[in-house]
Amino acid sequence: MNLIQIKNCYKVYNNGVTAIADLNLTIQKGEFVFVIGASGSGKSTLIKMLYREERPTNGSVIVGGINVAKLRNSKVYKLRRKLGIVFQDFKLLPKLTVYENVAFALESIGMNSKEIRPKVLKALESVGLKEKVRSFPNQLSGGEQQRVCIARAIVNEPKLLICDEPTGNLDPETSKEIVKILDNINKEFDTTIIMATHDKEIVNRMKKRVLLLENGVLTGDYMKGSYKAHESN
To answer: pLDDT digits over 127-184, tens only?
Structure first.
């Protein structure tokens, strides 16, 4: 089943820069996909189009049956309720506890507290942080903060988890832990994961599908791929 279908997609910014050029791409439900490429290759633009932070200039971007290109600003929240998003810089609310940060994602869509509690505890257990429910972000390591972000992203059981350089601010060992958690989520819940990254070591070790962008053009699509695959071309 196609979860994401992108056809003849272009993204041209107001300054004339073409960030994405004639992109055609299909991603199936349950896949784990790395998006790689140098800075300025279009990785972040592609990721942002999936959750409608950016709108394509031409072509279609269909996510879970919704054509993002035609989605009105007032309806974007409907798309984002179906997604989980993990950022490089955590974006946790500093005055809220771990529990409250994760619960906030459900409170904002009107869920009642009786429904929220078991979902939050399940999400925190999935990332190994159930014992940190009362901690505040400044009491956590960088890796623990990113795990809270993942818990917040998966608490509503989304079909798609979008990760934009989630290990960019973390040391190699912590990065491994984070990607292992993502891999477990992919396998346990059949959650589709799309992860933009510069981390060669992780990409080479994981042997997942790899999409290579160069100057906005998709120049490689490797099943069980790696950085090594494109560097040897």
So the answer is: 999 999 999 999 999 999 999 999 999 999 999 999 999 998 899 999 999 999 999 9
Same domain, 165 and 61: yes
**Per-position b or e across 31-64, b if 16+ CB within 10 A of its CB:** bbbbbbbeeebbbbbbbbbbbbebebeebebbbb
Do 25 and 78 reside in the same domain of the chain? Answer: yes
d(CA 28, CA 46): 17
CATH number for the domain harbouring residue 64: 3.40.50.300
The answer for residues whose C-beta is within 8 angstroms of residue 53's C-beta and 6 or more apart is none
Instruction: Give the H/E segment covering residue 105.
Output: helix 98-107
- Domain, as residue range, for 62: 1-82+160-174+189-233
3-state helix, strand, coil in the chain (%, to 5): 40, 25, 35
pTM comes to: 0.92
Residue 165, Ramachandran bin (φ over 0: left; ψ between -120 and 50: alpha; else beta): left
Residue 62 shares a structural domain with residue 164? yes
Confidence band for 230, pLDDT divided at 50, 70 and 90: low
Domain count, the chain: 2
SS3 for 185-207 is HHHHHCCEEEEECCCHHHHHHHC
Residue 59 lies inside a defined structural domain of this protein: yes
Do 164 and 153 belong to one domain? Answer: no
Determine the straight-line distance between the first and last CA of the chain, rounded to whole angstroms.
31
